[in-house]
Amino acid sequence: MLQDPVLVDAANPRVTVIRLNRPERLNAFDDAAVEAFFAALDRIGRSDASAVIITGEGRGFCAGFDLNAAAETEDDPVATAAYWTGRQEHFAGLVTRLRALPQPVIAAVNGVACGAGLGLALGCDLRICSDRAKFNAAFIKVGMTSCDIGVSYLLPRAIGTSRAFEMMLTGRMVDAAEAGRIGLVYKSTTAEGLMPAAFELAESIAENGRLNTWLTKRGMWANLEAGSLAAAIELENRSQILMQGTGNLERVARARGFL
Hints:
Keywords: Lyase
Organism: Paracoccus alkenifer
Family: Belongs to the enoyl-CoA hydratase/isomerase family.
GO molecular function: lyase activity
InterPro entries: ClpP/crotonase-like_dom_sf (IPR029045), Enoyl-CoA_hyd/isom_CS (IPR018376), Enoyl-CoA_hydra/iso (IPR001753), Enoyl-CoA_hydra_C (IPR014748)
CATH architecture of the largest domain: Alpha-Beta Complex
C-alpha cells in the first residue's frame, strides 16, 4: 500500500504541521511528493491556521530531489529540455508558494536538509533545527549547480555572501552547531526538544493576530527586494495605516495592559 508522501496535522487549530513522509528516501521530493506538498499548502492557505510548521518523518528533513527520478528523459533532446524545464520550474515554485502563504512558516529541521531540502528550509520564514540536522548545497556534488530552488537568492540573505559562496561552491555539510553560529537557523535544540520548541515559537506568533502577522510577513519579504529605504518605509507606512483602520491598536493595547 502506497503511503501519503505528505502528512498534514491540523489537530491544533492555530498551528498546522506538515510532515514530509518518505523516510526511506530521507524525504526526498519526487513528482508525487511535490504535488502533495502543493496541495497541502493550498489547503492550509485557505484555513484559519495562524502558523505552519514543516518537518520530516524519520532521520531526514528533506534530502532534496530524488535522484532516482533523474533518469527520466525523452529520446528527443528538444523534448528532454522542455520536459526538464517544466519540471524544474514546477519544483522551484515550492519556494515562492511558501512565501505567498499568509501564515508564517517554521522549518523544524530534524535531519539532513540537502539541495532542494536546503532551499525548502530557506523558503520558510523561520528555521530551527535539532542537533542531528545537517545542511548542504548538494547539487554541485553531482554535476549540477548549487543555484537551485531559490538557494542563490535566499542563502546569502540569511548568512552573508562569503559564507554562502563557500557553502555553494564546496557543497560541504554544515552541522547544527555551525548553522546556529552563522545564522542559518534561529536556534538549535535536541532532537526531543525540536517540535516542542517549534510549537512554542508558532504559538508566540499566533498570539499576535492573523492580519497583522500576514502583513508583517509580506512586508518583510517585499522589503528584502526594496530598491531604497524610502520605498521600504512607504510600504511600512501603508501597512500601519491599514492596521490602524481596523481599530485593533486601541483594543489590543488596552486588552494587554499597555494603556
